[in-house]
Amino acid sequence: EVQLLESGGGLVQPGGSVRLSCAASGFTFGSSRMTWLRQAPGKGLEWVSSISSSSDTTYYADSVKGRFAVSRDNSKNTLFLEMSSLRAEDTALYYCAKPITGSYGAVNYWGQGTLVTVSS
Amino acid sequence: DIQMTQSPSTLSASVGDRVTITCRASQSINTWLAWYQQKPGKIPRLLIYKASNLESGVPSRFSGSGSGTEFTLTISSLQPDDFATYYCQQYNTYSFTFGPGTKVDIK
To answer: Contact at 8 Å (CB) between A18 and A8?
Structure first.
C-alpha cells in the first residue's frame, strides 16, 4: 500500500523558512517522480513543484520559483521541500504526492498534508 | 502559463441526474488532462487521466472526453457519494495548472 507522510509544517513568520519532509513507502520510491501541491484554506488546488526520480530535473510554479527548492533522498525514501522568504499567501496545506507513472502532473496518491501558516 | 477555466462554478443536481462539467484550456494541451474529486476535509481523488482514462477503482458512471482545449467530465447517474467539488488539471506544460473547481451540490 502506498503511503506518504508529510511533516514539518507549522507557524512561520513572514520572511522565514521551513523544510517539509515526506516519508514514502509501499512503492519503489527511487524510480518514481514526485510532486508537491498545496491548497490554501477554503481555496482550490495548486501544483507547486515536481522532481524526477534521479533529481536531475525539477519544476516549480512561478509563484514559488526562486524561493522553494525540492529535493529527495532515495536512500531514505524521503522527499523534501525547502521553503524560504515565506509570504502570507504561502499559507496552505501542503501535499506530497506521487503522479501516475510517466507523468509529473496527474496524481493518484496523496499524503494527508501538512499545514504551513505564515503569520506574525 | 496555461490557464484553465471550468463551468459551471456551481451545479445543483438530484440523485440520478446526468451531470456534465466543462473544462477549457487557454491553449492546446492535447489530451494531457486529469479530473479530480474532492470532498470537504478530504484529500483529492484522481478520477480520470489523459482526458478519458478511468483511474483504477473509479466507478464507471464517471467518464471524460475531449482534446485540444475543451474537455468534459460526465457523471451518467449522480449518486449521493458524488456531491463534491471537481477540479480539472492540465499536465501538458508545467506549471501543471488546475481549474478553479466545480461544486456539485444537492438540488
So the answer is: yes
Question: A46-73 pLDDT, tens per residue?
Answer: 999 999 999 999 999 999 999 999 999 9
- A contacts of B97 (beta carbons < 8 Å): 47
Task: Find chain B residues with C-beta within 8 A of A104's C-beta.
Answer: 91, 94, 96
Place of cell 451540490: B105
SS3 A29: helix
Residues of B in contact with A61 (CB under 8 A): 95
Contact: A107, B50; criterion CB under 8 Å: no
* Closest-CA distance of chain A to residue B88, Å: 10
Task: Establish whether the linkage from the previous residue to B8 is cis, with ω within 30° of 0.
Answer: yes
Q: Where are the beta strands (DSSP E) in chain A?
A: 3-7, 10-12, 18-25, 34-39, 45-51, 58-60, 68-73, 78-83, 92-99, 107-110, 114-118
Chain A within 8 Å of B55 (Cβ-Cβ)?
Answer: yes
Under 8 Å between Cβ of A46 and A114: no
- Measured in whole angstroms, the distance separating CA A65 from the mean position of its chain's CA atoms is 13
CA distance A35 to B80: 31
* Pairwise CB contact (< 8 Å): B89 & A44: no
B61-83 per-position pLDDT tens digit: 999 999 999 999 999 999 999 99
Rounded Cα distance between A69 and A109, Å, is 21
